[in-house]
Backbone:
């Protein structure tokens, strides 16, 4: 599954290139609970076709109705279509309890949208082309006229809006690099693709690559540390080592720690992860400070016992870090297992392949 923003912009570009009237809706403010976060976008065609979302569906239905009706006028020849034009318009939903109920908003929820009518097709083509090439872009819309300017940016920022302009940041797909092509990797890769990540899997071992069965993920056979260098992880990338083999994992992790990857982690029990840190400090001149970003045991504690459940645990932690959500200590695998089993109960890798604390 591709980046949802990119899908919306690609579809909107196609509509406008075909000469269709369309609008772009952006969530610019929310109060209380809201179905979609600030910065979410949706495109609506004159035909009623919708891509993306700004709510659970009710607000989309209202926008479709209003957009369709606003394009109709009556003269002596009957009802005819007319283009909807003009500067961007702000609209609010859910201001009263009745509206919140009508539009399916959570109790007390209110959101404000900015509607842009008939965005320029050439501007959209330039934006989509830059995103498809992996660039991070800012799109600035002048609220008085709807004029748009595009610029490349170095780091993602939140949506900005004032009385003059709206500035929204759009990025390429988030990327995930997985070291090792085992069964756990297959589940994790599938979940990552479903969540909009572009997934690359690296494993120099023939016996693992030949059994790989996940479509949509790029499979490489180079040594992991070389792959990390070529992958060039950035702020929208994560690297996970899943082989249990120091020959494959350690050097790749060291390379990843020199990048801006938002998440770097390795599979293994509490004891296995402690030994990895000791090994990297003793033989690779690392320090506790230089290893501070290395996560392990990875995942959140949900009592998982199967590869599929463990993948859910790991994917949940990756998404929490991506979304800058702090996780309670109770979700930390090491802390949870110590509370249950005591600090001396960490298992060795060979004892059980898929015990919860074993793989984290």
Residues:
């Amino acid at each position: 599954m591709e980046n949802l923003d990119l899908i919306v912009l690609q579809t909107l570009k196609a509509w406008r290139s075909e000469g269709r009237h369309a609008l772009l809706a952006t969530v610019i403010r929310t109060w209380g609970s809201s179905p979609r976060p600030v910065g979410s976008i949706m495109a609506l065609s004159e035909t009623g076709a919708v891509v993306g979302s700004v709510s659970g569906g009710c607000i989309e239905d209202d926008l479709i109705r209003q957009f369709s009706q606003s394009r109709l006028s009556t003269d002596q020849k009957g009802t005819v279509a007319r283009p909807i034009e003009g500067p961007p318009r702000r609209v609010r939903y859910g201001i009263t309890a009745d509206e919140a109920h009508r539009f399916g908003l959570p109790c007390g929820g209110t959101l404000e949208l900015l509607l842009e009518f008939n965005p320029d097709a050439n501007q959209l083509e330039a934006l989509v082309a830059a995103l498809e090439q992996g660039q991070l872009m800012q799109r600035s819309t002048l609220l008085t006229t709807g004029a748009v300017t595009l610029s490349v940016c170095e780091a993602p920022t939140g949506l900005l809006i004032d009385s003059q302009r709206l500035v929204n940041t759009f990025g390429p797909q988030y990327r995930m690099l997985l070291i090792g092509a085992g069964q756990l990797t297959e589940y994790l890769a599938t979940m990552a693709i479903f969540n909009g990540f572009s997934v690359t899997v690296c494993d120099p071992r023939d016996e693992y690559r030949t059994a790989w069965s996940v479509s949509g993920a790029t499979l490489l056979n180079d040594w992991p540390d070389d792959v990390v260098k070529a992958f060039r992880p950035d702020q929208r990338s994560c690297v996970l080592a899943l082989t249990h083999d120091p020959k494959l994992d350690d050097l790749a992790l060291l390379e990843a720690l020199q990048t801006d990857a938002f998440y770097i982690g390795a599979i293994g029990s509490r004891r296995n992860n402690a030994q990895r840190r000791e090994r990297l400090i003793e033989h690779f001149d690392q320090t506790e400070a230089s290893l501070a970003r290395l996560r392990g045991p990875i995942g959140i504690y949900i009592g998982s016992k199967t590869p599929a459940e463990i993948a859910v645990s790991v994917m949940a932690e990756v998404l929490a870090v991506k979304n800058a959500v702090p996780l309670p200590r109770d979700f930390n695998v090491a802390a949870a297992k110590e509370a249950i089993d005591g600090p001396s109960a960490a298992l060795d890798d060979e004892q059980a392949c898929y015990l919860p604390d074993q793989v984290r």
Summary: Confidence is low (pLDDT under 50) at residues 346-360.
